[in-house]
Amino acid sequence: MSSDSLRKRAGTNPANLEVVLGSAPYAEARTEVWHCRYESRALAECATFIEHIRRSLGPEPPGAELLIGARRAITVICVLTAGGRREMHYAFLCEFEGPSHWDAVARRDLAQRLALL
Fold first, then answer.
1. pLDDT (tens digit, 9 = 90+) per residue, 17-64?
2. With CB atoms 3.0 to 4.6 Å apart as the test, which of 34, 77, 91, 101 could cross-link to 19 if both were Cys?
3. Which of 27, 26, 51, 31 is nearest to 41 (CA)?
4. In which element (H, E) is residue 6 found?
5. Residues contacting residue 24 through CB under 8 Å, at least 6 positions apart
6. Are 49 and 25 in contact (CB under 8 A)?
7. Pairing of the two strands 74-80 and 64-70
8. pTM for this prediction
9. How buried is 9 (Cβ within 10 angstroms: 0-12 exposed, 13-18 middle, 19+ buried)?
10. What is the arrangement of strands in the sheet containing 64-70, beginning at the earlier edge strand?
């Protein structure tokens, strides 16, 4: 994992780590932070991305959780609260083998979410 995407969570148990995954599959366009509806669009992208990851890789094991977080931008993070092999393996899968493009289900879900904005 890159040093930018794996870091200790400030102010919490040093065993907790975050893997920053982005707001959408890496090969897809994302809403830019200067977009007039950035927050609502980015939240829709992140929610869709989390569902897409779970559909592609399976649900998180105990000790790992996919969440929407706000760092410099709104993004999906995999929070590891346990340092076991299953949790670390899932985080590596999310970062390196996660979806690179939206599938048909994710495209439909994202379009429905964005239509509600």
1. 889 999 999 999 999 999 999 999 999 999 999 999 999 999 999 999
2. 91
3. 31
4. strand 6-8
5. 30, 45, 46, 48, 49, 102
6. yes
7. antiparallel
8. 0.84
9. middle
10. 6-8, 17-22, 74-80, 64-70
